[in-house]
Amino acid sequence: MMPAVGICFSLVGLLILIVIYVPYRRAVIPFVRAFFGPYLSYFPIICALEASDGGHDEASLPPSFLMRD
Q1: Source organism's superkingdom (predicted)?
Q2: What DSSP line would sit under the chain, residue for residue?
């Protein structure tokens, strides 16, 4: 029963977002850009940092570390 409740809440939330977004598209997008603009510029940097593992691949490790039993 609980997964069904979660799915229903998700669908209702999605419907509410669509109902709000579609008529007010011209107002919502500038508001989001104005409000979250400084943070949106950091997303590519954050994604790049999360995608890289800091360069700790096998090629950068010393041979003694790789040959440990």
Answers
A1: Eukaryota
A2: -HHHHHHHHHHHHHHHHHHHHTTTHHHHHHHHHHHHHHHHTTHHHHHHHHHS-TT-SGGGS-HHHHT--
Q: CA 59 to CA 68: how far, in whole Å?
A: 15
Residue 54 above 80 pLDDT?
no
Amino acid letter, residue 21: Y
For the CA atoms of 25, 30, 35, 38, what is the dihedral angle to 10 degrees?
Answer: 130
Phi-psi region of 7 (alpha: psi -120 to 50; beta: other; left: phi over 0): alpha
Q: Which tens digits make up the pLDDT trace of 5-39?
A: 888 888 998 888 888 777 777 777 777 777 777 76
